[in-house]
């Protein structure tokens, strides 16, 4: 049986998943459903997609100014000067001074951000706190400290930095007052949740103040590692505290359960903030309230921590920050009515409630039991805030399948446990257990299958290195289970890293594609099911003053500066080669437009469904649609040659060169080709191109 098939066999009965979905979708308050089977015993799961009524658009009742921004910018500049100018941090240094199996190149964007914030002025406000911050960040950036220490720090974690703001004290008091007022209104003890609890620092301030007014306090987060840290922090209240890992499906155990949901400085750290808002709403009881606080901009004091968190774990991406207007629209679209909204110190703060009653899953189950045979009644139900669609518009059951498999992994574990074999497997199993909530780990159990994530994986790899077992995240992602992961591992002392050597004579010789590049090139072909997938994205900008000569001149400098922009596929796409800039034509086009609207239409139509032939052209292009009072400029990249961080770098440098044609940009150091061809780690080749 293939997962994509709609007909499955459950306990000897043939079941059409479409019929199960239709039965669930026919229940009150449900507009759609997804059914899947999971686990070795073919358990039937279903999620209901609620019919949501949009809420009225709220207005901002109060705006307070941003506090201490000038002072924070000054200290960020001082910190940047210490790290970049005094201590010589650069991408060149990070490439050649690695202390772990994972590439320091992941911090490229952090170094770029620090470099942009340096100043020629002498360092000001120099004090012990600034030196301590520089020491802390330098250790992480040079791999002398594990990036997970970022979340453990009492001074530099995202939570600690948030709580150091003056406004945070007002916010904590407001949250406490909200919980107490709700308890008084309802006349009973409450069920409260911290949505996106992270390591529990905020809950540690809330819970002691409201413990007498609550019966349950749930810690909710997308990371099992964070949940473990938070639970440990709140150990004094263990009789009230429970934990649940957030997935895209809101499990029946937390659906419509809470009288008050508090989410402070958390939504923007989640993969899809808009969907996180929907999930938060689905955890609210019918008359519950959500106290939400989230930044609309990164404070300068938090920028270094935020940049490291994004590079190491994908947390806190700037695109996740919603403007106040977008927040208001999102609350309305997700069916959350704002009782009030205010902006304080660059933070969006609201108290919201449901516009539609929650789906009654107990009633839904009893309805199904009356209308369909017993074997068609799902064993477990959940809520999916919105219909999951793939890129081609079809229903994507992946997120539901992941939720179901995670649930089954805990149910089936005792039946499928096989003892780890040998010293290495037993030691690794013991370490895995510490990062998987203390569960027993057998030799055919998978780390991510049982709830591991990128943060816990990074900490786990670090823990293994401390007992002399050298492994990498790449090996962990490639392995299916404990036994696979342990193949080839040994207990030994770590070897010294070797610096990359550069052979200039081979600069323009072909070299191998990386695994990610191979995946992109294979996905572009039509020989596979679901093939012909593009790896192209474009950005569109509008300006009232445009000079194509300055634009082209800036691109000429970038083409000469970045070898990746001069790299083409050769030898039938099996290799890649850096060309001299003189051998290539700049892929810059210009068209005339009638007005701004026409210019946007020209760029969108030309670039929205593009695919660059990388055997003939470099992995970028630009189209300028010029009209009488300005221009719309589209800039496209192919991810095969230019990744997300590199796009940001190129666009930032393009803007700088356009505004200041003689700008002095920082040195490049090692190139992508240098890294792919010459990189060595612990005496083992990561990837060798020649």
From TrEMBL:
Transmembrane segments: none annotated. InterPro entries: ACP-like_sf (IPR036736), AMP-bd_C_sf (IPR045851), CAT-like_dom_sf (IPR023213), Condensation_dom (IPR001242), Methyltransf_12 (IPR013217), PP-bd_ACP (IPR009081), Ppantetheine_attach_site (IPR006162), SAM-dependent_MTases_sf (IPR029063). GO terms for cellular component: cytoplasm. It holds the Pfam family PP-binding. One of its GO terms (molecular function) is methyltransferase activity. Keywords: Ligase, Methyltransferase, Phosphopantetheine, Phosphoprotein, Transferase. Its cofactor is pantetheine 4'-phosphate. SUPFAM superfamilies: Acetyl-CoA synthetase-like, ACP-like, CoA-dependent acyltransferases, S-adenosyl-L-methionine-dependent methyltransferases. One of its GO terms (biological process) is toxin biosynthetic process. Residues 419-493 form the Carrier domain. PANTHER family: NONRIBOSOMAL PEPTIDE SYNTHETASE, PYOCHELIN SYNTHASE PCHF. This is Methyltransferase.
């Amino acid at each position: 049986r293939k997962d994509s098939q709609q007909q499955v066999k459950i306990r000897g009965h043939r079941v059409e998943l479409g019929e199960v979905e239709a039965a669930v979708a026919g229940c009150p308050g449900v507009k759609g459903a997804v059914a899947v089977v999971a686990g070795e015993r073919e358990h039937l799961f279903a999620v209901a997609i609620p019919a949501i009524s949009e809420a009225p658009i709220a207005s901002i009742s109060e705006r307070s100014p941003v506090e201490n921004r000038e002072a924070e910018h000054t200290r960020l500049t001082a910190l940047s000067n210490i790290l970049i100018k005094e201590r010589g941090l650069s991408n060149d240094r990070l490439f050649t001074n690695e202390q772990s199996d994972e590439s320091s190149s992941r911090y490229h964007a952090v170094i770029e951000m620090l470099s942009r914030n340096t100043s020629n002025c002498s360092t000001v406000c120099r004090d012990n706190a600034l030196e301590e911050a520089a020491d802390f960040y330098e250790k992480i950036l040079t791999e002398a400290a594990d990036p997970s220490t970022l979340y453990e720090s009492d001074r530099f974690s995202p939570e600690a930095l948030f709580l150091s703001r003056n406004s945070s004290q007002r916010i904590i008091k407001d949250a406490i007052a909200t919980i107490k007022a709700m308890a008084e209104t309802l006349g009973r003890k409450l069920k409260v949740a911290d949505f996106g609890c992270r390591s529990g620092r905020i809950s540690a301030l809330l819970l002691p103040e409201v413990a007498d007014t609550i019966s349950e306090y749930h810690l909710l987060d997308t990371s099992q590692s964070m949940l473990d840290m938070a639970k440990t922090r709140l150990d004094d209240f263990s009789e009230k505290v429970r934990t649940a890992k957030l997935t895209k499906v809101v499990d029946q155990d937390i659906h419509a359960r809470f009288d008050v949901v508090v989410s402070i400085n958390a939504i923007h750290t989640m993969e899809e903030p808009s969907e996180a808002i929907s999930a938060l709403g689905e955890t609210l009881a019918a008359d519950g309230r959500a106290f939400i606080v989230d930044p609309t901009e990164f404070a300068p004091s938090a920028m270094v921590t935020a940049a490291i968190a994004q590079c190491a774990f994908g947390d806190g991406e700037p695109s996740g920050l919603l403007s106040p207007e977008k927040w208001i629209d999102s609350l309305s679209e997700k069916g959350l009515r704002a009782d009030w909204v205010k902006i304080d110190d660059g933070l969006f703060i609201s108290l919201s409630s449901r516009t539609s009653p929650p789906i009654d899953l107990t009633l839904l189950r009893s309805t199904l039991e009356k209308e369909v045979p017993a074997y068609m009644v799902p064993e477990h139900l959940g809520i999916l805030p919105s219909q999951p669609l793939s890129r081609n518009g079809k229903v994507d059951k992946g997120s539901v399948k992941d939720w179901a498999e995670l649930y089954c992994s805990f149910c089936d574990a005792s039946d499928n446990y096989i003892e780890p074999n040998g010293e290495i497997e037993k030691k690794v199993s013991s370490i895995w257990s510490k990062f998987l909530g203390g569960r027993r780990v057998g030799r055919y159990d998978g780390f991510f299958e049982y709830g591991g994530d990128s943060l816990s994986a990074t900490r786990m790899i670090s823990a293994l290195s401390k007992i002399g077992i050298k492994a990498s995240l790449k090996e962990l992602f490639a392995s299916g289970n404990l036994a696979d992961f342990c193949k080839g591992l040994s207990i030994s002392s770590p070897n010294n890293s070797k610096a990359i050597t550069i052979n200039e004579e081979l600069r323009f010789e072909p070299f191998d594609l990386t695994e990610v590049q191979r995946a992109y090139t294979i996905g572009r072909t039509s020989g596979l099911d679901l093939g012909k997938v593009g790896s192209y994205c474009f950005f569109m900008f509008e300006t009232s003053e445009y000079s194509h000569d300055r634009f082209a001149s800036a691109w000429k400098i970038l083409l000469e500066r970045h070898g990746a922009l001069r790299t083409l596929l050769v030898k039938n796409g099996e290799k890649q080669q850096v060309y001299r800039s003189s051998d290539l034509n700049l892929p810059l086009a210009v068209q005339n437009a009638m007005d701004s609207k026409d210019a946007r239409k020209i760029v969108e139509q030309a670039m929205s469904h593009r695919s660059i032939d990388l055997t003939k052209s470099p992995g970028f292009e630009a189209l300028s649609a010029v009209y009488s009072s300005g221009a719309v400029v589209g800039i496209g990249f192919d991810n095969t040659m230019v990744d997300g961080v590199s796009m940001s770098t190129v666009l930032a440098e393009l803007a700088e060169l356009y505004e200041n044609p003689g700008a002095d940009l920082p040195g490049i150091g090692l190139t992508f080709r240098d890294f792919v061809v010459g990189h060595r780690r612990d005496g083992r080749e990561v990837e060798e191109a020649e």
